[in-house]
Structure formats: structure tokens, C-alpha cells
Write the C-alpha cells for this entry.
Amino acid sequence: MQIKMKLNVPAVLTSVQPNDLILKVLDIINSSKRKMPAHFTSNGKRTQSFCVDFDISETDEYAMASSAWSKAPNPSIIKIGEDIMLAAYIAVKLGGEKLIPQLYQSIIETCSEKLFKKHKDYFEHCADFGKLRAVSS
């Protein structure tokens, strides 16, 4: 399934090769050891955590975990939304904002087309929220 996304913020790409950056972001996301949505996962002093090996401010982590949880129309899709949000956030922080649609596509391919179509607005919210959180912090 091919996904079309709108990007609302200008993109900047570092000297890192796009495929290397995509793999790095996906590796960071897949490093998470959380078994529940971040909204219900604590890590040290953090009451809401994605438990990934990346420097996310406590404020950003809390805001993203809360948004992914509160905007989800169905609890079964929260982790997918969180992964999309994290991918957008991390990509921006690493200078690969223009790679967000490819990361989004990679993550969405893990779910069924029917599930994607039903919750497309939520998944797009997650991508936008993660991107905007990274740009504003």
C-alpha cells in the first residue's frame, strides 16, 4: 500500500545517507522494551516512557505519550501510532525530516490495509505531533 503524506514544515537533511538514517531511526524505535503503551510505562523518574535508546526530553516524552493515548480511537493501534510519532520526532532531531513519509510507510506496512484505512487520521496525527514536538523543542 502506498501512502501519501503532507509535510507542514520545511525539511533539512544531514550528510547521513537517507537509507542509513531510516535504518537508524527504525533501530531506535525497535530498541524499545515497553510492553504497554508509553502512557502506562514508567522508566526511572519518568511516569510515561517509550523506553527507547534516544535522548527525548521528559516533557516531550510525556506530551507524545499522552497524545498517542488520548487521540487513539482504538487501544489496539496505540503502539503503531507511538512508533509513527517516535519516528517523526527522531527523524527531525537527526536532520531527516524529509524521510518521515518513508518511515511512516515502513511502520504502516506492519498493519493491515483495512486497519490503516480505518485509522489513517490518527496515524497522520501521530506523525504530525511527533514532528512538531521535535521542531518546537
